[in-house]
Amino acid sequence: MKLDLTGKTALVTGATGDLGRVMVRTLASCGADIVIHYNQNAAKAEALRLEVGALGRRAVIVQADITDSASVTAMKDTVEQTLGAVDIVVANAVIQYQWTSVLEQPLEDYTSQFESCVMQSVYLAKAFIPGMIEHKQGGRFIGINTECAMQNFANQSAYVAGKRGMDGVYRVLAREVGEHQITVNQVAPGWTISDRDRDNGTEHSEGYERTVPLKRRGTDQEIANAVAFLASDLSSFITGAYIPVSGGNVMPTI
């Protein structure tokens, strides 16, 4: 038994980011062709394209503003003209901002989180799910959420609001497209170790690790592994799920 994505095409938004790059490599290693979405970092996108090619997979680079419907639609048109239909969508991109209290948080940060968490997912669904339905081969729609959506800690309000709104869209969408064998799920990382931490020597945080049942931070590869599983046929009967990959730091209840 293995994660085999041969013959599938996967789109990863925010592919040039710390987590996005590992997702791209992992999905390509499982056999998928890759749509490498970026907003600003063309150089990293090209480097990723070369990595995917070295793995024997096809890749196309597409620049798009994931908070703009027309830009997402244009991305879809470009992808279909180059790689064909998309089978797997991973909504990973998010706008970064400085966290502070509700009383101090600039109003535009709430808008940016709504646009990059909720509306990105809506635009991607409208652009790519009709093609999945038309091709009658099922599909995978995967969103990157966060453990913060369950924690609701101080200074997280804009981020949590965006991700909790995103959660609602995914749960409803799972019910709406399930009859087409399209699954809709969310991966919710904890505070994840990335290349930035490795470069800066900041992999460990005693205070945070003390709260985690597994007593450590997760890695970018562990998040990408969960995404690859949900993208594969091994997850064919899982939909509507919010799956923390946080070492037990948050646990959804029944």
Descriptors:
alpha/beta; 46% helix; seven-stranded parallel beta sheet; 254 residues; 9 helices; Rossmann fold
What would you say this structure looks like, in words?
The protein has one domain: NAD(P)-binding Rossmann-like Domain (Rossmann fold), CATH 3.40.50.720. 46% of the residues lie in helices and 15% in strands. The chain has helices at 18-29, 42-54, 69-82, 107-135, 148-151, 157-177, 195-200, 206-211, 220-231, and strands at 9-12, 33-38, 59-63, 88-91, 139-144, 182-189, 242-245. It has a 7-stranded parallel beta sheet with strand order 3-2-1-4-5-6-7, sandwiched between helices. Helix 1 crosses helix 9, helix 3 (69-82) runs parallel beside helix 4 and helix 4 (107-135) packs parallel to helix 6. 45% of the residues are buried.
Summary, kept brief:
The chain has 254 residues and is of the alpha/beta class. Helices cover 46% and strands 15% of the residues. The chain has one domain (9-245): 3-Layer(aba) Sandwich (Rossmann fold), CATH 3.40.50.720.
